[in-house]
User: What shape does this take?
Amino acid sequence: MEVNIAESKKQTARLFSEYFSNLIAKNTISHIALSGGSTPKEVFKELAEHFKNKVDWSKVQFYWGDERCVPPDDEESNYKMANEYLFSKIEFPLGNIQRIKGENEPAEEATRYSDLLEKNLPKFNMQPQFDLVILGLGDDGHTASIFPNQINLWNSKAYCEVAEHPETGQKRVTLTGNIINNAKEVAFLVTGANKAKKVLEIIEKEGNYNTYPASLVEPRSGGLNWFLDADAAKFIELS
Assistant: This one.
């Protein structure tokens, strides 16, 4: 595990963008699962503004770790956010976008997306392998769209499952732990003081950490990276 801490959300986005750029440069093709949320939004802005001409975007195949079951033009769509803040600002083949179709019937879409991953991704351990899965961390310890009350979805044999937000009931299509932990690298992007206690519990394996889906992120490759701002890392003591 590698923990990277920057002073601000913007500096965290810069640090992650440098890591992202270096990863793309090393690979002939990079299969990357994106995340939604406010911190990835800052990353997309940073990539579009300062890395637009530093990255060979034609080498990147974009996927998602989860998607809300809404149309692609809905304000809650993770695809819409990525399109608005990154895709519309850079030049690359539109065929490189492999979005989860939130407008489809959820169970059918989970199956379709699982089949797409089986077809498109290289194999490792006889399963599809991403080069990078980007994850966020919810206030409740959820990651992707696997929530504490549905933590059993993490161990599903399927690559994708339909999850439900515990408060709103909104359905979401999400990757499962099976494929997240098969990735070459996984990167958590976490900012804000409201996440600090969960970050401490998960990294140090304290408190109720084992009830949080995010604590189950343990890529078999060992390639786990945390990108935190000072607020999210305020309880962490690095040796």
